[in-house]
């Protein structure tokens, strides 16, 4: 067993990797170097910080009052006081273990939406459902700037969308949008939700679109746009994709697997120009 | 507790109180060490006492009962049919007289040598493995796993005692080839990648899979690396890739333990048979012909609402009969990926990882483990260190290797290139022998099998200069 431990002299405890400059080309944690064979202290601690931020993203509650205050002050905010709703998951621990509770509104919220639908004659083409999901940071960071890009395009288009008051949900999952859309009798629902945080992306927002929302719909009825954030899919680009999907859904009266997002086709072609530097290509 | 004894199939009386269990499935579920997924399914024991009583009751069940009392009806489920039709009675005869409790004693005893354990493999059903697992402690699972030797091969030999392999997982959120190449280089320089270089594609279609397969094939050929590649796309995509002439080494598929789970994944046993034949026809293996790579994980059946009220560990073990049918090079339980609604914290993830490894090894599978967690689970790097070390002691076939533990595409944390070096050094384990020789010849190892070269090996220097210039 003696050969397990190196016997040759080492000048520095941390050995840097000459390829660490490749980090210019990827967010992956490559070229970290090593202390012996272990991760050097500075990279260990950077990782711990990233993990701490991701955990905080999961457990920090959404500041709903602050969010509503900000939203109603915007010129593009749909008319009507935003509706404050809660799922059947009473707290975060229950939310994490009972996905079924996060997909349905609690009785109070259900009642308040029924009351709203009863008192209000408006017919809605579209309801935005804003859900904390697994990252309240994602909503607090990205929601307002994204809606600022998207909503004016919807209301100023040739056939303006009639948009319901914004719905804000605590302890919700994606499918809760179907429950809400159903109760509001909206033709379409767009859920904006804090996605499961990654180490390099604690603040990623997802968008899920369902035409003709009904409780019990599976993912096959939804279209998704993922990774909406400044360092991911930026707001103008995300709004462009969302507008495309919304218009397609309205003209075809459907959503999900039968509605393909073709806005990416040009991107894939572009990707083919990337090269694999490990190989010298024969010309 | 049982007031009306007639509705119970199994009963156990302790101190004047009688506990009842409706069926074998109910007994199995209630005997399972606590976890969130079984609570979510509503099948878990309601009290700690009920669980302990269930374990005592299960220990008295004869192994032969599992051949008669199938948990999902034979007529309804092709995996039940697979388990029953392919059961080897001669192999079973060695242990056929045992109860579940007696089986635990036998497995731990000196009667169960590696050779004997190999001989009984095809006589053990997934349900027998799952049942005995439920009454074993973590150290029992480790000790018996270590006695189960499972060897497979394609371009190198996986699973020999004293070796630990790694899957190099160079995922990238946009499948950017430069980014993927950078992660492959990083992994190879840290002596990772002997189990497979395997990419989860961000864009999941046939064209993209072919592009990634070609890229990895070029790297493997150019540097003459004795390893294999895999794009983890749907089995039907891989069949199309083969038809289009793509260089497919291993066929991937996520599999579950009930027919309904696999229906929800969009394949059945016939699909896997077709894919395996197609991959074998390419004859790309040099030292063996194990061409399949499967991934599993507790909770997938419940997640697909296809669990038939079985507990998640029993569903998981049934998936291994699917894997076993197709002679895989690698099977990987992605233990912490599914989230806290199935495995709540580090303790539950650790237990599940050891269970899956044990059941798979007992059934004769080359089991590795994606020792991992998501950021919404109650787990951290220390939990991963513990499970990785325990699994390596148990003789785990392979673990993942990823830059700095951070999968920037799938947004979860798994074991790093450094982690693999740690566990190899701490326990004196080496990579697959052919890959090990390549690491030495290429000067990635400097003078022995545990010390990395301080400098860039000559074979890779030109590539790096092309990318970065002369520093």
- The end-to-end span of chain A amounts to 49 Å
Biggest sheet character of chain B:
4 strands, parallel
Shape of chain A: globular
User: What would you give as the CATH superfamily of the largest domain in chain B?
Assistant: Aldolase class I
CATH architecture title of the largest domain in chain B: Alpha-Beta Barrel
Level of helix content of chain B? 40-55%
Mean pLDDT of chain A: 90
Assign a percent range to the helix content of chain A: 25-40%
The percentage of residues in β strands of chain B lies in 5-15%
- Taking all Cα atoms into account, the compactness measure Rg of chain A is 23 Å
Quick one: overall form of chain B? Answer: globular
Task: Write the element-wise H/E pattern of chain A from the N-terminal end onward.
Answer: EEHHEHHHEHEHEEEHH
Number of discrete domains of chain A? 2
- Do you know the CATH topology of the largest domain in chain B? TIM Barrel
Largest sheet of chain A: 6 strands, mixed
Describe what this molecule looks like in 3D:
The complex is a heterodimer of chains A (283) and B (471). Helix content of chain A is 37%, strand content 14%. Chain A has nine helices and eight strands. Chain A has a six-stranded mixed β-sheet with strand order 3-5-4-6-7-8, sandwiched between helices. In chain A, strands 1-2 form a two-stranded antiparallel sheet. In chain A, helix 6 packs across helix 8 (235-252). The longest helix of chain A has 20 residues, at 136-155. Chain A starts with 13 loop residues before the first strand and ends in a 12-residue tail after the last helix. Chain B folds into two domains: 5-59, Ribosomal Protein L24e, Chain: T (Roll); 152-441, Aldolase class I (TIM Barrel, Alpha-Beta Barrel). Helix content of chain B is 46%, strand content 11%. The termini of chain B are far apart. The mean pLDDT of chain B is 95. Chains A and B meet through helix 1 of A and helix 2, helix 11, helix 12, strand 13 and strand 14 of B.
């Amino acid at each position: 067993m003696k050969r397990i431990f190196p016997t040759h002299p080492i000048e520095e405890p941390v050995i840097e990797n000459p390829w660490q400059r490749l980090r210019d080309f990827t967010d992956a944690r490559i070229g970290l170097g090593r202390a012996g064979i272990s991760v050097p202290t500075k990279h260990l601690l950077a990782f711990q910080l990233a993990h701490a931020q991701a955990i905080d993203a999961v457990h920090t509650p959404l500041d709903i009052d602050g969010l509503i205050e900000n939203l109603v002050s915007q010129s593009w905010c749909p008319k009507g006081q935003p509706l404050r709703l809660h799922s059947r998951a009473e707290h975060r621990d229950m939310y994490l273990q009972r996905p079924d509770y996060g997909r349905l509104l609690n009785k109070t919220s259900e009642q308040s939406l029924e009351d709203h639908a009863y008192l209000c004659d408006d017919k809605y083409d579209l309801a935005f459902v804003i859900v904390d999901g697994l990252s309240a940071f994602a909503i607090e960071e990205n929601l307002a700037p994204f809606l600022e890009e998207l909503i004016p395009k919807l209301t100023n288009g040739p056939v303006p969308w009639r948009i319901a008051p914004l719905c804000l949900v605590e302890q919700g999952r994606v499918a809760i949008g179907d429950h809400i859309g159903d109760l509001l009798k909206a033709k379409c629902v767009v859920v904006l939700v804090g996605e499961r945080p990654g180490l390099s992306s604690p603040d990623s927002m997802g968008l899920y679109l369902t035409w003709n929302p009904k409780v019990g719909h599976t993912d096959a009825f939804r279209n998704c746009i993922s990774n909406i954030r400044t360092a991911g899919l930026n707001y103008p680009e995300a709004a462009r994709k969302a507008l495309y999907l919304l218009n397609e859904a309205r003209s075809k009266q459907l959503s999900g697997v039968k509605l393909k997002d073709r806005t990416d086709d040009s991107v894939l072609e572009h990707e083919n120009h990337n090269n694999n530097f490990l190989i010298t290509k024969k010309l | 507790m049982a007031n009306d004894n007639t509705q119970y199939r199994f009963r156990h009386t302790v101190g004047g109180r009688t506990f009842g269990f409706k069926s074998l499935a109910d007994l199995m579920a209630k005997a399972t060490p606590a976890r969130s997924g079984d609570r979510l399914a509503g099948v878990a024991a309601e009290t700690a006492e009920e669980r302990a009583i269930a374990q005592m009751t299960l220990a008295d069940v004869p192994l032969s009962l599992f051949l008669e009392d199938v948990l999902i009806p034979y007529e309804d489920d092709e995996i039940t049919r697979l388990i029953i039709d392919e059961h080897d009675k001669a192999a079973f005869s060695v242990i056929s007289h045992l109860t579940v409790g007696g089986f635990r004693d036998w497995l731990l005893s000196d009667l169960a040598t590696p050779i004997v354990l190999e001989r009984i493999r095809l006589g053990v059903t997934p349900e027998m493995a799952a049942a005995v697992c439920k009454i074993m402690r973590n150290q029992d699972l480790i000790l018996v796993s270590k006695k189960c030797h499972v060897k497979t091969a394609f371009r190198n030999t996986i699973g020999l005692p004293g070796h630990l392999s790694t899957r190099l997982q160079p995922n990238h959120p946009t499948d950017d080839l430069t980014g993927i190449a950078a992660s492959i280089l990083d992994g190879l320089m840290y002596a990772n990648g002997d189990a497979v270089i395997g990419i989860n594609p961000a864009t999941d279609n046939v064209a993209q899979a072919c592009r990634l397969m070609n890229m990895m094939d070029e790297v493997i050929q150019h540097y003459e690396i004795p390893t294999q590649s895999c794009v983890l796309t749907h089995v039907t995509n891989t069949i199309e890739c083969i038809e289009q002439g793509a260089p497919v080494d291993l066929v991937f598929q996520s599999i579950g333990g009930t027919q309904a789970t696999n229906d929800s994944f969009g394949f059945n046993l016939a699909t896997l048979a077709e894919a395996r034949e197609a991959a074998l026809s390419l004859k790309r293996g040099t030292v063996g012909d194990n061409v399949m790579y499967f991934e599993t994980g507790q909770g997938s059946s419940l997640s697909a609402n296809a669990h038939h009220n079985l507990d998640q560990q029993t569903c998981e073990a049934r998936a291994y009969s699917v894997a076993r049918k197709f002679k895989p090079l690698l099977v990987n339980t992605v233990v912490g990926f599914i989230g806290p609604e199935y495995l709540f914290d580090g303790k539950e993830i650790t237990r599940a990882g050891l269970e899956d490894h044990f059941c798979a090894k007992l059934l004769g599978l080359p089991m590795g483990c994606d020792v991992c967690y998501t950021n919404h689970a109650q787990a951290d790097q220390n939990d991963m260190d513990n499970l990785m070390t325990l699994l390596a002691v148990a003789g785990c076939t392979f673990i993942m290797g990823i830059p700095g533990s951070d999968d920037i595409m799938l947004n979860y944390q798994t074991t790093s290139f450094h982690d693999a070096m740690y566990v190899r050094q701490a326990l004196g384990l080496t990579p697959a022998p052919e890959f090990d020789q390549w690491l030495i010849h290429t000067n990635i190892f400097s003078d022995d099998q545990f010390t990395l070269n301080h400098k860039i090996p000559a074979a890779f220097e030109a590539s790096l200069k092309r990318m970065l210039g002369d520093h």
